[in-house]
Each structure stands twice: as C-alpha cells, then as structure tokens.
Amino acid sequence: MGRADRERRGAGENERGSRWQGPPGGARAFPRGRAEPPPEEMVAELLSAAVDARLHADAPQFPRLVETLTGDPGLRPVVDRALLGMLGDHLARAWRNGWMPADVVRLVGRRFGARHVCLVTDAVAAEMRAYAPATVDERWQDQLTALDATVWWGRDEEYLREDGDRAAMVARALEVIILLVRLQPLERLCPPPGSARRTARAAGRVDERMLTRVRALLAKAESTEFEAEAETFTAAAQSLMARYSIDAALLAAGEANRTGDEPQGRRLGIDAPYEGPKAVLLDVIASANHCRSIWSRHLGFATVLGFPAELTAVEVLFTSLLVQATSAMRQAGARRDGAGRSRTRSFRQSFLAAYAYRIGERLREAAGEAVRQATAETGRDLLPVLAARDEEVDAAMEKMFPGLSMVRTGSVSNREGWISGRAAADRAVLDVHPKIPSGRS
C-alpha cells in the first residue's frame, strides 16, 4: 500500500472514530469540521443513548435525551418511525425467545400502568401483520383475541397516542422498549408466529362454546351470595367440564391415539399480594388434574403443563377458587393485635396458605373417590391409563425444566388466619372431576 493510500485510509478511520455519539447533557454536539448527521442517524443515536441511560441507571440523562428527541418539531416523523420500528423489532425477538403476547402484556402491566399496556397491546397487533394467518399457531391467536389486539388505526403513528404530551409519549414508548430489551428467554410453549403450520382444527383444541358455558356458570357461582346457588351453578359447570374431559381422555387412550393429543404448556398469572399461597393453590389444583405447575415468581406467572382439556380445567378452577378465597378473606375483615398494631397481612398470608393446603386435601379425596367409582363402573384397572398420562406430562416437564426447585410459601405466623383459611376452603365450591375414562366405549 502506497503512502497516499495509507493517508486516505487513516483519514477515513479518524472520521469513523469521531462519529457523533449523541448529545452530552441533551445538547447537540458534532465533531469539528463535520456536518450534522442525517436525521435518521441522529435519532437512532439519541434513542440508543436513552435506552443505555435507563439500562445503566443514569436517571438525569434519560429525561434530557427525551427532551432533545421532542424539542425539534422537524424530527417528529423520524422519531415516530424509529420508535415504531424498535417496538416491532424487539417484539419479534421476544417471540423467538419463547415469549407470547399475554406474557409480554402481563409483564408490562406489572411494571407500568394502563397507558403502557395499551401501547404494547397495539404494538403486538401491529407486529402480527407481518405473518400469514396460516403460520400463526391457534394458541397464539387465542391470546390475541383475549387481549383484543387488533389494528384500529389508519397510520401506525396514531397508536403511539401522543394526546398533547409528546414527551410523555416518547418516554412511555422507550420504557416499553427497555423492558423488551431486558427480556430473558423463556421456555417455548408453541411455535412462534411465522413457523406454525395450522390445520383445520388443531389437535387437542378445547371447544370454545363449551368453555364459554363453563365460565358463565362459574361467574354466576362467584357472584351469588347464597351458597346453595353457588353449588348448583358450579356443579353444572363441573358436569360440562367432566364430560368433555372424559371424551378427550377416551380418545387419547385409543389404541393408535389418532387425535395427536400431547402435553402442552400454559402460563397463568400469579399476582401480588400473597403470591406464595396463590402459587400453592394453583399447584394443588394442577396436581389433582394430572398437570404440573412451575412458578416463575419474578415474572409473575406459573407455567402449567398437561393435556389441553386438563389445562382448561385447571385454569377455570383456579380462577374460580381464587375469587372465592379472596371474597372469604375480605369478609373476614382486618386484624389487630392487643397493642393495636395491624396483623392483617400476616392473617391473610396464613389464611390463603391454609386455604390452599385444605383445597389440596379435598381435591385428593375427590380424586381417590372418583377413581374407585370409575373402576367399579368399568371393571377396568384405570391406574395404567392414568399413569401413562402422568408419565407423558412428567417427561414434558423434565424436558422443559431440567432443574426445578420446590415452591415455597414462606412462614405461617398467624394461627387465626390459618384456621379461618381452612374453614373457608371447606366451604369452597369445587369445580373438579378427575379426568379419567369412564365406562363409555
């Protein structure tokens, strides 16, 4: 290489080394002798600096960068396009890393407020336009429907919802982006969008009409003040779910198992307060329905593994019993010790812990009785059928979660709360029936 070539190469390297790194303190600053960079490059640098400021806990720098991003009206369309692009890119990355729409929206709701939830829900709807419907798993589509993640706007910039406070909108979008940047990979429960191969009806899919009827009956059971009515409504829901689940088990127990039924996973929210006892409640319900539950406390959910019909039974029963437990706990009122200090938190912690353990006892008793009755009716040894289903679920759990630790609920420090919780569990209306084959053929 000649001297002139080396000088030209060195000059290029010097210019690259002096590339604009963003405005320190929010002011524009460019290397001497260099023209202002293109708006797209400048905005990208500002946004990157804002993300870094939050990631590295540089509190003063973040609002200064937001001010710079919103201070120049000429940058408005460039900033909007960049934010929309970042939201879509990081959501696509989340899908590849095992996250699903409900997981992302739930986590945003735990960390921020309703406006952040609206933003990320719309961003999910916008990102999903990139995939052909035939390449989106039906479980994925079910979550989009439940979230009402639909495109309601004409131009994408509209869903950013500036609403007269541009700085707040930019900060809000950046906060969602930063949360997405921090997401760690999760266990994959179904194929990400773009890679699924949908058929006319997915194997093991639960009849939505039946599920709607079950949920309507449970809603009536939860809302009535009369215990006899609650038992009537819940018994009807139990009957529907049991019949459907028995049919599914019979198909799966067929000689060739042509249904393609296999264990799946579902994530259910475990919200504060008193997450520990709530996680135990879910665990005992899952066990009674031949499922397994693994709690991810820091993310606010538990992953339940099992066959589709049983997963649905676990979800509706957990929801119903949690509503009943919360209602009973609130009716019990607040508690104070002899010195007037509040003991409400310890009372409720103990209440829910006792409730969960007692529900577990009742479900185990019901499961044992149902096995005995079905054995008498069919004249068959049902234990091999049940054991085979359990082994498949255990294998799926071990594959997905090779290293597990036991769920801990913390200490129980309030005897009155424990006694009250067990009493409430005894009064609770159970919507459960062991999912086993009957005498049908």
What would you note in describing this structure?
There is one protein chain. Strands 1-3-2 form a three-stranded antiparallel sheet. It is built from 15 helices and three strands. The protein is mostly helical. The protein has two domains: 22-182, no CATH class; 208-427, no CATH class. Helix 5 (101-111) packs antiparallel against helix 6. The chain has helices at residues 3-17, 39-55, 61-71, 76-96, 101-111, 114-127, 138-147, 166-182, 208-223, 227-252, 275-288, 308-331, 344-378, 383-400, 415-427; strands spanning 264-269, 292-296, 301-306. 36% of the residues are buried. Helix content is 59%, strand content 4%.
Summarize the structure.
Helix content is 59%, strand content 4%. By secondary structure, it is mainly alpha-helical. It has a three-stranded antiparallel sheet with strand order 1-3-2.
In terms of DSSP E residues, the strand content is: under 5%
Could you give the count of β-strands? 3
Number of helices: 15
Query: How would you classify the quaternary structure?
Result: single chain
Globally, the shape reads globular
Biased composition (Basic and acidic residues): 1-18
Protein name: DUF2786 domain-containing protein
Organism: Microbispora amethystogenes
Domain DUF2786: 209-247
